[in-house]
MFS transporter (Adlercreutzia equolifaciens subsp. celatus DSM 18785), 383 residues
Amino acid sequence: MITSYAAGYAVVWYVTESTGSALMLAAMNIAVMLPVGLISPFGGIVADKHNRKLIMIAADGAVGIISLVAGLLILAGDVSIPLLLAVCIARAVGQAFHSPAMMAAMPMLVPDKHLLRINTLDQLLASVASIGAPAFGIFLYTTLGFSSVMFLDFAGACVAVLGLALAKIPTVVDATAKEQHVLANLRDGWRAIAKTRGLVLLIGGVTIGMMIFGPLSAVFPLMTYQHFGGDGYAASLAEAAFGVGMFVGSGILIAWGGGKRLAGLIAVAAVVVGVATAACGLLPPDAFPAFIGLVAVMAVACAWFNGPTMTLTQRNVPDDKMGRAMGLLTAAMGLATPVGIAIGGVLAEAMGVAPFFIVDGLACLTLGLVLYLPKSVRALDEG
């Protein structure tokens, strides 16, 4: 995970340094996320038809090989934006098969009362990786070269494959899924979610939230670079602050357990993120330390989105339909983010990065205020 984050940030910084364009950063982020959104439903079908452990091993192995090939090409001097776009797309395809299989296996490994904590623990580990990985990636990028970061990612993928090979992961296969065509499988996954109306509305709200928040990940480096006049290490500090905030937020959720009102917690998180994001846009260029603090606050609240959403979905969907349901959930979020980035990239380019933070924050604040109003959403916390 650390090596993957380091490689991803090295790619982001290469694009930032070589182009300085919000649109190019948006395009790179779309390349990372759009394939996940488009292919995850089919990854979910595969997860319900076949051995989920083998699917994860194959996906991680493929991503490792892609990083190895990319490192060799970069070492040979063939680094270019089209190459990096192709690498991002190929890695995203692997993720589109890995994520539904992993999320579908989780409820069979963990008792229901600990499901939120374990889902959040996975997020916490990602936060730990994101704290040091950007700085580590920049260090390797500036000292040993871009290719070294990709070679390290290959080594990390090998370790992940070995760990999965040694793990015992049960698999529930839906016999009817093997006999159905693709559209019928997708329909079954949707029906498994749609039977709970509040879950549909909640996932819809979270998806809109991903559209709103998604562009920030694309323009974070530009906010540091253009508005505050920072360099690569300053940008990595902002990323690390976000990671620390996610770590703290995840730790709070693990220790607390989230309480009984998980849907309400998601709405509160959206309000906090909205306020912190808008405040970032109001900062003067000499207030970079305040920006770091607000980013950390924003990240604490961000940690309260994915775990509760995933847990509420897992609690309301049968195990044999879980892969397809998780594939659709991943697709919704995966498609929402690049759509948001595409729109946000154009807006940020037109109005400037700082004003965009203000507009984006107000939109997220509004979402948080209305998300918990429907009775069916509140019913998720009463079940």
Observations:
- Residues 2-379 form a domain with the Growth Hormone; Chain: A; fold (CATH 1.20.1250.20).
